[in-house]
Write a structure and sequence with these properties.
mainly alpha; 2 domains; 6 helices; 0% strand
Length: 76
């Protein structure tokens, strides 16, 4: 990860990338699960002009089994 940051940000010192990563990783939530409410909101908005979209349900569109498995293994 740090190598990618160092290269992508064109940093000379990998230590700077490591330090920045440690600060930033605590700022953002590590939630990788789909947000069903957000999906339902998108369906609501897009459904204003499309009957087929209006019939969708967010919960029926999401398969979070992979994310749950990774979380169970401690990767998230």
């Amino acid at each position: 990860m740090v190598g990618t940051l160092t290269k992508g940000l064109q940093m000379v010192r990998p230590e700077d990338a490591e330090e920045g990563y440690e600060v930033i990783k605590n700022v953002y939530e590590r939630r990788v699960y789909p947000n069903i409410d957000g999906i339902n909101n998108a369906i609501r908005l897009l459904g204003l002009s499309n009957e087929k979209i209006r019939q969708l349900k967010g919960a029926n569109l999401v398969d979070d089994s992979i994310v749950k498995k990774l979380a169970k293994e401690g990767l998230f």
